[in-house]
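Example protein as discussed:

>
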Amino acid sequence: YEKAMFRWGTIPYEITHGTELSPSMAFPIPLTLFTSMFLHGGLFHLGGNMLYLWIFGDNVEDRLGHIKYFFFYILSGLAASLLFIFTSPQSQVPMVGASGAIAGVLGAYMITFPKARIMTLIFFGFFIRVTPIPALLVLGFWFLFQLLYALPSIGSTTGGVAFFAHIGGFVA
């Protein structure tokens, strides 16, 4: 599993220096910008991404059509990777996941359906309530959360959540 992450995940250092850290690379380094979108760090990572895609993706795809949606999704993922690489060019930790591409879908949803109401869990201590909240508010809050966590990670070379990838996809 770890070998797959280092082989097909995007490693910012490899992209910025044009050299592979692992000599077993089966294809050109830039192709990891695509392959990394189809790997995930575990079942919770995959499940979280699929939940967001399930909630927001079909509406955006209906608006764009299948072909445009496919290219939009891929371009959002590329923008996500490029912003992360720009903010952490020395990182030797593989970046994997579709979160950046899905963040692009979230951004498109927010622009296209700002008044749509998202059924949201609200926690009050031990009490939980399901409340419809406008997409603009839900996704705007999500974006601010990403930004607050991203700023301290500029230049980081350690692993963790690639918040700038989420920002890059969302803005794209």
Notes: The CA atoms of residues 10 and 40 lie 12 Å apart. The chain has a mean pLDDT of 90.
